[in-house]
Amino acid sequence: MTLRIALFVSGIISISGCSNIAILTPKGTEAYSELSLLYLSLALMSIVLLVVFTLFTRFLIKYRERPGQENDFPTQIEGNKKLEITWVVVPVFILIILAIPTFATTYQLDHEAESVDEPLRINVTGKQFRWFFYYPEFNIMLENEVKLPVDRPVVFNLHSEDVIHSFWIPQLAGKKDVLPHKENKLTITPDETGTFDGKCAEFCGASHAFMTFKTTVIEREAFKEWTNVADKQEE
Amino acid sequence: MKALLNYFTSLPSDILLADLSFTILAITIAYLLTTHSKWNWLWSWITSTDHKKIGIMYLLVSFLFFIRAGMEALLIRMQLAFPNNDFWVFQGDRFNQLTSTHGTVMIFLVATPLLIGLMNVIVPLQIGSRDVAFPFMNSLSLWLFISGGILLNVSFVAGGSPNAGWTSYAPLALNDYTPGPGNNYYPIGLQVAGLGTIMGGINFIVTILKMRAPGMRFMRMPLSTWAMFITSILIVYAFSALAVALLLLTFERLFGTVILSGGEGNPIIWQHLFWIFGHPEVYIIALPAFGIFSDVISTFSKRKLFGYPSMVFAIILIGFLGFMVWVHHMFTVGLNTNINIFFALTTMLIAVPTGIKVFNWLFTMRGGRIRFDTPMLYALGFIFTFVIGGVTGVMLSTVPADYQYHDSYFVVAHLHYVIIGATIFGVFSGVYYWWPKMFGKFLNEKLGKWNFWTFGIGFHFTFFPMHIMGLMGMPRRVFTYPEDEGLGFLNFISTFGAFMMGAGILFFIINIYLTTRYSKKLMLNDPWYSRGRTLEWTIPSPPPAYNFARLPEVKSREPLWDAYEKGYKNIDFIGEYEDIHMPNSTSLPFFIGIGFLIASFGFVFEIWTVAMLGMAMVFLLLGIRSFQQNNGIHIPKKTVMAEDRRSEE
User: Fold this and answer.
1) What is the pLDDT of residues A32-72, one digit of tens each?
2) Which residues pair with B14 in a beta bridge?
3) Same domain, yes or no, for A15 and A105?
4) pLDDT at B437 over 80
5) Do A123 and A230 share a structural domain?
6) Is residue A218 in some structural domain?
7) Taking CB atoms and an 8 Å cutoff, what residues of chain A touch B267?
8) Distance from A144 to chain B by nearest Cα, in Å?
9) N or C, which terminus of chain A has less Cβ within 10 Å?
10) Are residues A91 and A145 in the same domain?
């Protein structure tokens, strides 16, 4: 059974193609550090899965009731202190290994907005079912699309005009809720150019599925040029 | 007449179909009851205060809700089977109604009451008691649950279902964004059902504290009973928090308060209160299942439960920690970093007692003679499934990675692995295990195995791909997805799996029908190869109304097994035969339920006279109850003795 499931899993992954899996192919610093925690926790948890499923399969095969054993009743035991202590202590160690980098990364990501140098600031407004992006530096307003320069940290000031939304560009960074009456900040540092899907991740009403936007990451020169052109058009 | 016809032809086809099938069903049932002259029989069930009958009604009604919410799941999966799909009418708002009621019904009207029902039958039997502490309140719990359930289910055809998600987050769930009666059903229906659940919790606590048989100390209680004891404490605390949250939402929607909205209020209050209830709720529906698995795995491995004290300790610890993890549902809200860190730590910690339980189950099987009857298959399926769900749970606790998983299909996969893996597998395991005790007949093993394998394999087909869909960036609760994201294939597999699960449930229904109709009565106290361990197997199947003719004496943790070891056929019963005092049947809880139903419709549609009328009915009935001289009935000693002798032969 375990083997069958494992085959099934690897089958699915190979068919769908790893290149499609957004979170596993990060294009931003933040998404990258989040992914490394995914891998760490997955690796630690694989040990757990391996131990449990090995014992599980072994016990089921070895101690199954064979024909003729219907009236066979084995000796009864209460437990085993040493074993019971083992499966308290070992998981605690595994959790400590996981907890330390978790804490460090959380602090780092949550305080990035204050610590980064000269970030590009963009005010994001979520409004059923559209996204508005305003660049105060250049006085540019975009709807349902956002352009970012590569390798420059961007601080998004998130704000909602109605219900709660959640701002998510899976390949660049994890999500942050977009609340009415409170501003949240999310920092993203794209490190490759390209076009990435952005979505609303918090259920927000009838057309929640359509509340998406395009993120285009371009070279810094190209970005500069674009801001100049866009600036002039505004005037 | 013509206006009526116009009204019906203007209805959307799905509502029309629901109306039609409901009418046909109601007429058929009424017809069958009349031709078989069973109305009196039905009334005797409705007015019963027997904990076994109440438990069975709980199971039946929540199973009906399970079928309804399961059909919703199939509709959801059909809409999501292909990219850019347009299935029937289920896009946009209609789809949101489906997901909202699917979640709400499954959690509140299926998972919780299924377990409460099963435990209602079993706990008094396991502790050697003749009924629960408050039989009247037990019946009232049932009818409040049914009232609340009817309310939530009727919403589909009357005024629209709740459509703000099963979590019903403000401000989306407030009048500004979802006007009309639809979202009124949610707080009011759940308030009524939740009131019943709180009463049930209190009832179990008092029953387990005060009504154990002589000699049954705390550390001699079976694990199912222990689990239900801790669960009941969780129910009293968690459902009270929910009641407060629902009141706030009701006031906000009906009377225009601004606690959850505007610059003065704060929508995050709802999220906190909801999850202070919501996370313990996960353990409310998991712990009793853990208890069932402990009893089942021990029985079918023919081994004593490994590490009983640590199993009890783990349940208590899970219950305690369960109240300190709620913020892990809110990591992306933008709370203070220290808060996120604290809740990540407590969430990780809860893996420790859970691990204790899993290893103890594994080592219970070690050295045993494992039989693969259907209850055991479900227990083994649980271990396999739940460990995967637990592992993704730990992955979700790492805050930065959770920024990615949160509100994506990864979470959908995780929660179904945990809730179906524990609760639904647990209920199936328990129902197959105790079915002969409840009805005196076995369920068919062959059909049981078909039921398990189709449901179990279908389950993994449905939910495993969702992990990957989540990592591919598919958010929850979307009614469609574009073609170019490559989500089509996985979604299709998932839909296929859902239908396989549906087939599994059909096998279960066929099994019940065939065995009830055709199989013979067992006439055995202890039907599972005559090696039961706990008190419920010392009495006839099905047990008489008073359960125990004479009180049992408990001298160890597994009294029946120990009696067998010493070569006895049954345990010692102490004391003489005597007249047995039992509670009356009563119709008041049923009518109080109806009173609440009327009042609730008044509140939902904001017709205050109806609301007042319903509440007046409730208070009038409570008044009547207070002045009733209700001393119960006595079953004469002679009858008890005769029945007891017959069962021994």
Assistant:
1) 999 999 999 999 999 999 999 999 999 999 999 998 888 88
2) none
3) yes
4) yes
5) yes
6) yes
7) 164, 179-180
8) 16
9) C
10) no
On chain B, the residues whose CB falls within 8 A of the CB of A165 are none
Do A38 and A133 share a domain, yes or no? no
The question of ipTM being above 0.90 is answered as yes
- Whether residues B401 and A180 touch (CB distance < 8 A) is answered with no
Range of the domain at A43: 2-64+81-110
The residues, any chain, with a CB within 8 Å of residue B138's CB and separated by 6 or more, are: B49, B51, B54, B120, B132, B199, B200, B203
Mean pLDDT, all residues of chain A = 89
- Whether the Cβ atoms of residue B534 and residue B562 lie closer than 8 Å to each other: no
CATH of the domain at A43: 1.10.287
**Distance (Å) from the alpha carbon of A225 to chain B's nearest alpha carbon:** 30
Beta bridge partners of A130: A127
Task: Give me the pLDDT at residue B230, please.
Answer: 97
Q: Are residues A52 and A137 in the same domain?
A: no
**Radius of gyration of the CA atoms of chain A, in A:** 25
Q: Measure the CA–CA gap between B468 and B471, rounded to whole angstroms.
A: 5
**Which residues are registered as beta bridge partners of B573?**
B552
Residue A74, in any domain of the structure: no
Cβ-defined contact of A201 to B306 (cutoff 8 Å)? no
Contacts of B383 in chain A (CB under 8 A): 52, 56
Check which CATH number belongs to the domain holding A221 and give it: 2.60.40.420
| A94 & A128 share domain | no
**Same domain, yes or no: A93 and A140:** no
Mean pLDDT within A118-144: 94
Distance from CA of A137 to the nearest CA of B (A): 25
Query: Which of A29, A59, A72, A131 is the best mutation test for B, with the most CBs of B within 10 A?
Result: A59
- Per-residue pLDDT tens digits for B597-620: 999 999 999 999 999 999 999 999
Report CB contact under 8 Å: B177, A88.
no
pLDDT in tens, B136-184: 999 999 999 999 999 999 988 888 889 999 999 989 999 999 998 989 9
Contact at CB, A163 and B92, closer than 8 angstroms: no
Name the residue among B165, B360, B400 with its Cβ closest to that of A106.
B400
- My answer on whether A147 and A125 are in the same domain is yes
Q: Domain count for chain A, please give it.
A: 2
Residue of B366, B404, B477 with shortest CB distance to A63: B366
Contact A203 B407 (CB under 8 A): yes
Cβ neighbours of A10 in B, within 8 Å? none
> What mean pLDDT is predicted for residues A201-220?
94
Provide the H-helix boundaries in B302-439. Answer: 308-321, 337-349, 351-365, 374-397, 399-405, 409-419, 425-439
